[in-house]
Amino acid sequence: MSRTSATLKNQMRSRIAHLAARMMAEDGIQDFALAKRKAARQLGAEDTHNLPNNAEIEEALRAYQSLYQGEEQPLRVQAMRLQACEAMRLFSAFNPYLTGSVLDGTATRHSDINLMLFTDSDKEVEIFLLNKQIPYERGEKRYRFADSPHTVPVLTLQYGGEADVDVAIFSADDIRLIPRSPAGGRALPRASLAEVENLLHAP
User: Fold this and answer.
1) Residue 33 or 90, more confident
2) For residue 25, how many other CB atoms are within 10 A of its CB?
3) FRET pair for 179, CA 20 to 30 Å: which of 7, 8, 144, 202?
4) At 69, which helix (H) or strand (E)?
5) Which letter, b or e, does each residue of 174-186 get, where b requires 16 or more Cβ atoms within 10 Å of its Cβ?
6) CB contact at 8 A, 187 and 180
7) What are the φ/ψ torsions at residue 169 (nearest 5 degrees)?
């Protein structure tokens, strides 16, 4: 490959990453793969084999938020972390952890609050919500532990607040395992209630 050709490919890769980041920040797309496919198609590069990886898009997202949402976005993250703490107190019996964009600080106007719960039975969580008269919708989400995919039930709570709260329910034994992040495949960061409260009070 010539140097000129490599430069053009890298430039297109960067353009796709930045457009995908803008779509995530402004248009409500929360899935990295969908954002990069839409960005590539919009730039006329849907056949490219040189798409940016998720970590590059996350880096571009942070840059976009810093440049165009410098005042709004930190306030949004703070409000969503407050709501996350309320939800974690609600689910204190199920070993709740916060994960996702609210924890890492990249939450957009359209982001959900993502919690992980660990319990012997997902039905216990549903019975708990029914007793609290909190409506929810049930779905599924796939996580990856090392090289093994793992599909778990996810409950989306519908009781108001800054954002929807998505509760992924793992077995009690899974608490020792760390799923992989979609951004770069590294270990997915997660935080306990005490750790999120510390974030709220950090300077």
Assistant:
1) 90
2) 23
3) 202
4) none
5) beeeebebbbeee
6) yes
7) -110, 115
Average pLDDT, the chain: 86
Q: How far apart are alpha carbons 10 and 113 in whole angstroms?
A: 34
- Residue 172: strand, helix, or coil: helix
Beta bridge partners of 190: 99
3-state helix, strand, coil in the chain (%, to 5): 50, 20, 30
Q: CA dist 156 to 29, 98, 133, Å?
A: 17, 14, 14
Cα 178 to Cα 95, 145, 185, distances in angstroms: 14, 7, 11
pTM, to two decimals: 0.80
Mean pLDDT of 25-37: 83
SS3 133: coil
- The dihedral built from the CA positions of residue 31, 185, 201 and 198, taken in this order, carries a sign that is positive
| Tokens (6 digits) for 25 | 């920040």
